[in-house]
Design brief:
The complex is a heterodimer of chains A (114) and B (111).
Chain A lengths: L3 E4 L2 E5 L4 E7 L6 E7 L5 E7 L5 E4 L2 E6 L4 E6 L8 E8 L8 E3 L3 E6 L1
Parallel strand pairs in A: 2-11
Antiparallel strand pairs in A: 1-3, 3-8, 4-5, 4-9, 6-7, 7-8, 9-10, 9-11
Chain B lengths: L3 E4 L2 E4 L5 E7 L5 E7 L6 E6 L6 E2 L7 E4 L4 E6 L8 E8 L6 E2 L3 E5 L1
Parallel strand pairs in B: 2-11
Antiparallel strand pairs in B: 1-3, 3-8, 4-5, 4-9, 5-6, 7-8, 9-10, 9-11
The chains are: A mainly beta (114), B mainly beta (111).
């Protein structure tokens, strides 16, 4: 059973527009949540990690929120660039140690057009 | 920054073939992982290891063996490859499992 659901599956935006990606999960316990960027054919690069209830993080044009009560996270990308074209993957860790497992979403494919 | 490399980057084999995927990390991380990524699915854990000589079974281990020969090197073995093993394979490493650093991936095609 899929424990991390991402929406939308894919999204097309024009360069300069903002966008929001959603992640809903049922993983318990939910120690932390991380957003990765995956360029086509490449590995995963961490964008940000959220740990606490109602956490908010910011990393340049990327910002993220976490609501542990609702088991929901959002990734906001501001003023998109062509280089933002990639798959964005939400990952929930059920522990903060090696005893835990990572639970991966299938990703949202973002396409930024000129 | 953690450096994880994988080889080969692309591999094509036939059904029944014998394939070894290699992963090396140069940051003295004790944990290493092998995942597969398929369209419509999140990454799924095949095997992992917490040190040389150690092997732990992941969530989708059937048809795969793995071996951790040194702190740096982790290998994934497909002794009788099948078309269902066509996938993008990622290796990752971490100090204690909290943050994993991923390699660039190996695309395997089994004809």
């Amino acid at each position: 059973k899929t424990q991390v659901e991402q929406s939308p599956q894919s999204l097309v935006v024009r360069q300069g527009e903002n966008c929001v990606l959603q992640c809903n999960y049922s993983v318990t316990p939910d120690n932390h949540l991380r957003w990765f960027k995956q360029d086509t054919g490449k590995g995963l690069v961490s964008l940000t990690v959220l740990v606490h209830e109602n956490d908010k993080t910011s990393n340049g044009r990327y910002s993220a929120t976490l609501d542990k009560d609702a088991k929901h996270s959002t990734l906001h990308i501001t003023a998109t660039l062509l280089d933002d074209t990639a798959t964005y993957i939400c990952v929930v860790g059920d522990r903060g140690s090696a005893l835990g497992r990572l639970h991966f979403g299938a990703g949202t494919q973002l396409i930024v057009i000129p | 920054e953690a450096a994880v490399t994988q080889s080969p980057r692309n591999k094509v084999t036939v059904t029944g073939g014998n394939v070894t995927l290699s992963c090396r990390q140069t940051n003295s991380h004790n944990y290493m992982y092998w995942y597969r990524q398929d369209t419509g699915h999140g990454l799924r854990l095949i095997h992992y290891s917490y040190g040389a000589g150690n092997l732990q079974i992941g969530d989708v281990p059937d048809g795969y063996k793995a071996t951790r020969t040194t702190q740096e090197d982790f290998f994934l073995l497909l002794e009788l490859a099948s078309p269902s093993q066509t996938s993008l394979y990622f290796c990752a490493s971490s100090v204690q499992g909290y943050e994993q650093y991923f390699g660039p991936g190996t695309r395997l095609t089994v004809l």
